Amino acid sequence: MTVPDLAAPRHHHRLHLGPPPPPIRQRDRVLLAIASFKFVKAALFVVVALGAFGLLSRRAAARAQDWVATLAATYDRGLTHRVVALLERISALSRHRLEALGVAALLYAALFVTEGIGLWRCRRWAEYLTVVATASLVPFEVYEITRRVTVPRVGALVVNLLVVWYLVRQIRRTAHHHR
């Protein structure tokens, strides 16, 4: 009969996430900002999914509509009308389309959370994933701008191009250091 070695490391059945990331003060602040932006986008898509699935009560939805309209009115009075029109169009969607919208929103939220966690933990795969995912949306953003130029559309395009540019630069820089 053998006696188990109590000092031996125990293997847990956890997902191995690689070595721990460096302390926050040593991490790239731009990567942390991009990760934070991904987390915010994920939260917004979860809210969209909840709304699409009808998980928000009518009272909460009405309160959210009032809040959005008030917030929009402080920045752009024309935006209030667009927000209300958008909410009316969404509420007119069929149940099937609302469910599809909810599923799509959850998938995007999952992607953004995955990118955010990977970038927050300074993982090279997350930089590649974010470059591919973000760059793949650029043609759609350009198309939307050709249909109608708006500040939010141009702003989204510029931010996404800057994210792709920065991450490609990071990937090349670290690849050059590892040669």
Architecture overview:
The longest helix is centred in the last third of the chain and has 27 residues, at 151-177. The radius of gyration is 22 Å and the shape is globular. It folds into two domains: 28-121, no CATH class; 123-179. Helix 5 (124-147) runs antiparallel to helix 6. It contains six helices and no strands. By secondary structure, it is mainly alpha-helical. It has helices spanning 29-52, 58-75, 77-91, 95-120, 124-147, 151-177.
SS field, number of helical segments:
6
Task: Give the biggest beta sheet.
Answer: none
Low-pLDDT runs: none
Give me the count of strands: 0
Radius of gyration over all CA atoms, rounded:
22 Å
Provide mean pLDDT, rounded: 80
Distance between the termini: 51 Å
List the main descriptive attributes of the protein structure presented here.
179 residues; mainly alpha; 2 domains; transmembrane; plasmid; DUF2127 domain-containing protein; DUF2127
Draw up the topology in text.
Layout: H1 29-52, H2 58-75, H3 77-91, H4 95-120, H5 124-147, H6 151-177
Concise structural overview:
The protein is mostly helical and 179 residues long. The chain has helices at residues 29-52, 58-75, 77-91, 95-120, 124-147, 151-177.
